Task: structure prediction
Amino acid sequence: MGPVVDLHHAVVLAGRYPVLAGLDLQVQSGEILLLEGENGSGKTSLLRLLAGLLPLSDGSGSVLGFDLSKDRASLHRCVGLIGHGAGLYDQLSVAENVTFQVRAAHGDSARVASALERVGLSAKADLPAWKLSAGQRRRCSLAITIARAPELWLMDEPEAGLDEAGRRILISLLDELASLSIPVLLSSHDLATLRPHVHRSVKLAGGITISTQPGGRPWLKAEGATDVS
Amino acid sequence: MFRDALLVAKKDLRIELRSRVLLGQVLPFAVACLLLFALALGPDRDFLRRAAPGVLWITMLFAAVLAAQRSAGVEDDDGARDRLILSGLDPAGIFLGKALAVTLQLLALALVLTAGTIVLFGATPSSWWPLAVAEILASLGLGFTSVLYGSLAEGTKLRETLLPLLSLPTVAPILIAGTKVYAASLSGAGVPAAWLGLLAVFTLAYGAVGVLLSGALQET
Result:
């Protein structure tokens, strides 16, 4: 099987400014990859490119076999992005938010309850989303992604806003995704917490990769089921 | 596509029912418009009756702009638009669903405003059904244009001012045809088939354009 992410000299423009300036990256199936770099180094833009939310201006790239220059729309339903915003509708309850996303993805609504339990939000299921704290919104975002069970997980500073219990949930989720061979790309500034749980970390600066190093998790590609809920 | 449209419409209507923006803001604004027009035009009942069709439809267009802002605004907060794009929903389904939700809100508004013009302007139609058909077609047409121009204005950071600038000139056919149908209903001058036809063609055209462009608009 080829890489799930395969970028060659990828350029992404914000107006006329290149937020990614000829970036090369390959990620293998089942790999957990940590993106490091200072603010403005291109981590968020890279994750949004891989989700199909930003167009490729130059270079070439594919994600899960979908050509980023031609078929971003087909890619959308296959990836799960936990971005800076939780993407919740404030007037809907926690459970309604998750259910809407699961139904939109033609998923099984029975996953909703187990996903909420997984992130510790079962007791808040009927609360409107506007009553959630920032950390609880982040947990709800995690629940949506768990319930949708995407083929590729993209997480942009997923630990932001999470308390200690929330971080433990995140780490256990990463461990489980690794055991199920589901690829994950995550960006973070909390390197000490996350490095031990990734296969590899890549450092970005100025919209390109400048270094790569092994993470704390040995790269032993596992075979397994593909359901995390 | 239609399954996705129903899912999105139900979501938007549920949000609207709970936030009560239509009931608490758009409706009072529209009723205030009617009142102000009535005050500005003076006490002449015959003049008010003749002016009522134009007043009704201008007020509907203003209210439609607010409904369009609201429909687009629901997706603005907290990365909801990204989440919606990544949901895997058919872009045409999203377009139709959001348009359906706006249409149903505008239909409810049209009912209240029609009652308002009857009470304030003494403009009771002698024939109801052409006006009813016109209001259904116009609400649907305004629903389509609202969501289409809302999508075009997205990401510009100028939606509040750009949306009315884009949409109001292009919905002139609704203003003209709707006014003619109401005027014909008032005078009992028979069925204004040509004007109803214009409304139907306008609505179908904008619906088709919206469905066809929805994918491209989502990816820009």
